[in-house]
Amino acid sequence: MWSLAVITLATLPLARVMRVSQMSPGTMANLNPADSGLWAAVKSALADRSYLLLHAGFFTCGFHIAFLVTHLPGEVDLCGLPASVASWSLAIIGLANIFGSLAAGWCVNRYRSKYVLFWMYGSRALLVLLYLAAPKTVWTFYLFAAGLGFTWLATVPPTAGVVGKLFGTRYLATLFGLTLLSHQTGGFFGAWLGGIAITHYGNYLWMWYADALLAAAAAFCNLPIREPRVERHAVPA
Length: 237
What we know:
The chain is mainly α. The protein is built from ten helices and no strands. The protein is globular, with a radius of gyration of 20 Å.
């Protein structure tokens, strides 16, 4: 905890370095002269079906992540494996997340973000079902962790990208922040319902099925999203 506190404090000077005294031309281009304000932008976004579908997908992402982070050690224990398997699995998730986030950025530059999200959520559903069918060995957990870690937080770039395409960057921080609120709400239910499952049933079986079902639903929720295409202009030499 002390290390985390020190790292957080060390990042504060970066805010001053990144502050600019005046808006750049690129920033000015994002300001709409007919801009009617933040609350109008929020109301407009909440009335947009595509934005609500993004919320639904991100809710599932939070549910999935919080359930695994909170209850994976308990699942490992139920399978009769040592606690070190849980710690290594979480470490593998973190390592795979680095590569997954980089891959997500690469994909978003080449494919429509809603399709990237479809495959990410769909792969989670498939991985959970494969895990349930596989023998519960050490390598099953490690491979499962690597697969899930690859899409762990890789959903963030395409989700933020769609929000920016739909509503511009003027209020992107607020509008993406609201989708993140849905993510954290899903996280609450993932951790809480996992606790109820283990308390009342002695295992997480129905939670795994719920997780796979929600991930599949999130995948298909992204397909109807209205994602504007970004015009690419050649940069003059």
